[in-house]
Amino acid sequence: MSGLSLRYQPAPASIRSLAVGFLERRDVGRDETALELPLHHALAQFMLDADYVVRDPAAPETSEIAPRAGLWGPASRTRLGRSQGRLHVFVAILTARGARAVAGAPLSELVDRRLDLEAVASEASRSWIARLRDAATFEARTALACRWLADVSIGTAAEETCRLVDGIAEHRLRGPVTALSRLVGVGPRALHGRFTRQAGWPPKTWLRVSRLQRVLRTVHPAPWGPAADGDVRLEFTDDAHLARDFHDLTGLTLAAYRRMKRSSGDPLLHTVLAPSFPLPRFHWTPFVDGSTLAMQESMRGIAP
């Protein structure tokens, strides 16, 4: 089994439009390397012990220390991270509306970015953040996070695009962009422009990353949380389409993902522990459409 523990608490109904739930992860090992796979939710992450260094494929020659209290926007590409010691992190999993309320900015300014929460939050929010970071237990942190999000929600409105993004992230809206455009009552081109301006990614990217979460939950040998709703394989033309899309988004093959999960025994869904791989071993190459990036031959030992 992996050397980590997870605790999870769903968000109460009073703030369900702002947060999905709260997660706390504590690692037993030190200096572990991980692949952070694409994710359609924004995360308010609080590093409670060691710092966490992230390398982004969009800037392969640089790395950054994640903010101690950070707003991690939805991610469309795999990133590489390493803890500088024993990792202990508290996470609020935010909806699109919740991320917009916390940041005071549209999703287009958050996707594929990591922001310092104390730099973007209001003065009232900074007070909550300080109290949350100093809390002694998961239960106390969760209670403070609920009160913080209820406070920042005052005066916020759910834009149509945020509602659509949350529908996609909650797996209520699926299928091709044309079906989504018919639901909204605008053409695919107009919907593409609206999403790109307001949500940062075109609707196709949101749909693909959300579908990836269903695939991960299906192929993981023993994931935490409920199983995927329905057979996600029916959303692909064939098995080759599934395999190609998975590799394009994650840089891993399905077999490699399953093998690494069985080897580590960890229940994490979109984070793959790879403790034996130093940061310089990874290189990144953009795909033609520019929407995803994949790890290439330098991933010897991970991708067959």
From TrEMBL:
<dbReference type="GO" id="GO:0003700">
    <property type="term" value="F:DNA-binding transcription factor activity"/>
</dbReference>
<dbReference type="Pfam" id="PF12833">
    <property type="entry name" value="HTH_18"/>
</dbReference>
<dbReference type="InterPro" id="IPR018060">
    <property type="entry name" value="HTH_AraC"/>
</dbReference>
<dbReference type="GO" id="GO:0043565">
    <property type="term" value="F:sequence-specific DNA binding"/>
</dbReference>
<feature type="domain" description="HTH araC/xylS-type">
    <location>
        <begin position="159"/>
        <end position="260"/>
    </location>
</feature>
<protein>
    <recommendedName>
        <fullName>HTH araC/xylS-type domain-containing protein</fullName>
    </recommendedName>
</protein>
